[in-house]
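[audit] Reproducing an earlier prediction to check determinism. Same input, same settings, fresh worker. If the C-alpha cells differ from the archived copy the diff job will pick it up downstream; this log only records the rerun itself.
[audit] input (246 residues):
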Amino acid sequence: MKKYLGPILFLIFLIGCQTESKLTFEPTQLLGENCNSCPKIEINIPHALDDSKVSEAINRALREEIISVLSFTEDETIDSADKAIKSFTDSYKELKTKFPDEVQWEATIDGEAIYEDENIITLMLNSYSFTGGAHGYASTSYLNFDKKSGAELENWELFDDLEGFAGYTETKFREQENIPRVGNINATGFMFEDDMFHLADNIGYTKDGLKLIYNQYEVASYADGPIELILPYSEINPYLKRKVKN
C-alpha cells in the first residue's frame, strides 16, 4: 500500500490546486418594481466573491452591461444596477402617462461563467429587452478575462495572429453557410458591411471551442436569428495568445 501512497497524495494535491484555482461565484437576482404601471425586469447574474483583481473586473463589467441594456440616457450618474433599473422603470412610467395604451416593457438579463482554465475565464450574458415596436431585441455577449492580470480582454487581445485567425474563420464561415469559397461574402444573402467578411463582435471561450456569435441584424435579417460558429481549439491554437490544452 505504501508504494501507492505517494501517487495518491500527489493526485489529491493536484486536484486541490485545480479546485483552488477556480473562482467562486454566488447567484444574484435583481428584480424591478412589482406594480401595474411598472416594466418587467429580471436579472440573474453571477457575483464573483474572491478578493482578486479579476473578480473586481468581472463584477464591474457585469454592472456596466446591465447599465448598457437598461439605461436610455447618457446620464453619467447611473453607475449601479439599481440606478439602471430605476432609469428603465422611470422611462416607461413617463411614456405610460403620455400614452396609456403603451404595451408593457420588459428586460431580462441572464449571465453565467461558461469557461475557465488557469489563464482565462469567460462569462456569457443573454439579454432581452422590449420597449415597443414589432418585437423585442435579444442578444448574446461574451466577456473574457485574463485571470493572471485581472484585465477584461478586448477581442484582438485573444490572438497572437489576428489576421491569420480572421482568414481561417472566413473559410470556415463560408463552409458552414454554403457560401462559395471565393467571391462576395454576401452572395447568398448575408449583409456584411462593404461586402467584406469581418469577425463577430462577440467571441468567447467555451468547452467545445472558441465561439463566435453574430447577433440579430449584425450580418443577417432579424428572421434569420443569431449566426453561430464554433472553432475547435485543436485547429485554432496556433492563432491564440492563450493556448487551450486539448
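[audit] rerun output stored. Observation attached for the diff report: The two ends are 33 Å apart (CA to CA).
[audit] end
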